[in-house]
């Protein structure tokens, strides 16, 4: 448990990711528009290496006949079966109320929920160093 330097801000530029192993856990650290997010490198569906998936955007709610595209660079798609997760909040795109990422920043978990969750970890920038914190 603790803080781990995973590189400098120059090591993980906007739109890039870095996969690291911290305390025995494979974690993907993503730089999305200058903000860093860290998620466990394991899809809750069938444990695929989620962080190797394509990072993209998605269609947004819109009126009939309109197709709005957004969240570019904020969605990771599982390389095995295409399950998609919002990297900024950990929610799945297909069922955000049941399959959510466990986030350490807010600590929100539905009690007794049996759906799989993807673990995330808080990320800070300290003196140009990207730091991931693991709290167990």
Automatic annotation (TrEMBL):
Work out whether the entry's keyword set contains Glycosyltransferase.
no
Under the heading InterPro entries, the entry gives: Rieske_2Fe-2S, Rieske_2Fe-2S_sf
Q: Which UniProt keywords apply?
A: 2Fe-2S, Iron, Iron-sulfur, Metal-binding
- Pfam annotation, one family: Rieske
Does Chloroplast appear among the keywords? no
Query: What's the domain of life for this entry?
Result: Bacteria
Q: Where is the Rieske domain?
A: 3-115
By what name is this protein known? Naphthalene 1,2-dioxygenase/salicylate 5-hydroxylase systems, ferredoxin component
Q: In which organism is this protein found? A: Paenibacillus konkukensis
Which taxonomic lineage is given here?
Answer: Bacteria, Bacillati, Bacillota, Bacilli, Bacillales
Q: Which gene encodes it?
A: nagAb
């Amino acid at each position: 448990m603790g803080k781990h330097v995973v590189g400098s801000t120059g090591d993980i530029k906007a739109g890039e990711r870095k996969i690291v192993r911290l305390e025995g856990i494979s974690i993907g650290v993503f730089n999305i528009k200058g903000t860093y997010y860290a998620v466990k490198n394991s899809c809750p569906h069938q444990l695929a290496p989620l962080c190797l998936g394509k990072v993209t955007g998605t269609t947004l709610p819109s009126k009939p006949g309109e197709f709005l595209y957004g969240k570019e660079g904020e969605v990771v798609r599982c390389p095995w079966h295409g399950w998609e997760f919002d990297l900024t909040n950990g929610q799945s795109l297909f069922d955000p109320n049941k399959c959510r990422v466990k986030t350490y920043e807010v600590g929100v978990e539905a009690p007794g929920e049996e759906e799989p969750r993807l673990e995330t970890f808080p990320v800070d920038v300290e003196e140009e160093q990207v730091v991931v914190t693991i709290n167990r």
